[in-house]
């Protein structure tokens, strides 16, 4: 009994939805036609006022708010075009050349700093490998008490050697980081944008 009621309900809802869709489709072409006729009438009728753009002058410029101009640029009349002065054209070339030189200088600084960062990464990896190797050797040495007693002199020498290598590599990493910091400071003083430095 519940299934019959459910199927009847679904059938009724779907019938209502289909009827409303059919009504919407049948009324749509008439509205489109009326709207199209209205648009043609407006276009043909020369008496309709056209919206005029707002023109700003010294009397109606906003004093408390910003003036924003958005849209197409007004066409320039042929007699309103000012002749191009050769001095202006020649003055623009050195400015473009100066900008190109600045860009090339910035790129050079960026390449130097990238190279230094790569050296720091390499030194950090080498330091990490040395530390891990030392830890493995120390764990193996201290895990076997008999080996520690038999080879204590050799291990003490090896231990000191590893610690010295680790200290030297750490100093190399610190020196490389300091060199990078100095490069970044010199680049800032040279006028390189901070986005290219970091």
Topology, please?
Layout: H1 2-44, H2 86-143, H3 145-150, H4 152-190, H5 194-197
What does this protein look like?
Helices cover 76% and strands 0% of the residues. By secondary structure, the chain is mainly α. The chain folds into 2 domains: 1-47; 93-197. Helix 2 (86-143) packs antiparallel against helix 4 (152-190). The chain is flat, with a radius of gyration of 41 Å. It starts with a helix and ends with a helix. The model has no long low-confidence stretch (mean pLDDT 78).
CA(first)-CA(last) distance: 74 Å
Number of domains: 2
Mean pLDDT: 78
Name the shape in a single word.
Answer: flat
**Rounded radius of gyration (Å):** 41 Å
Helix content: over 70%
Tally of individual helices: 5
Which key features would you list for this structure?
198 residues, mainly alpha, 5 helices, flat
Give a short overview.
With 198 residues, the chain is mostly helical. It has helices at residues 2-44, 86-143, 145-150, 152-190, 194-197.
């Amino acid at each position: 009994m519940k299934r019959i009621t459910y199927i009847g309900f679904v059938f009724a809802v779907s019938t209502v939805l289909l009827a409303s869709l059919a009504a919407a489709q049948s009324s749509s072409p008439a509205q489109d036609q009326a709207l199209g006729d209205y648009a043609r009438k407006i276009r043909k009728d020369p008496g309709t006022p056209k919206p005029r753009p707002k023109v700003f002058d010294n009397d109606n410029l906003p004093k408390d708010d910003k003036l924003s101009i958005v849209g197409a640029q007004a066409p320039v009349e042929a007699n309103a075009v000012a002749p191009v002065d050769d001095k202006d054209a020649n003055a623009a070339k050195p400015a473009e050349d100066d900008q190109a030189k600045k860009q090339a200088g910035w790129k050079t600084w960026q390449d130097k700093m990238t190279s230094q960062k790569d050296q720091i990464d390499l030194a950090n990896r080498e330091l990490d490998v040395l530390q891990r190797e030392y830890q493995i050797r120390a764990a193996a040495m201290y895990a076997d008490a008999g080996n520690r007693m038999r080879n204590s002199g050799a291990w003490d020498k090896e231990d000191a050697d590893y610690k010295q290598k680790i200290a030297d590599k750490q100093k190399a990493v610190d020196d490389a980081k300091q060199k990078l910091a100095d490069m970044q400071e010199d680049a800032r003083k040279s006028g390189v944008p901070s986005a290219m430095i970091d």
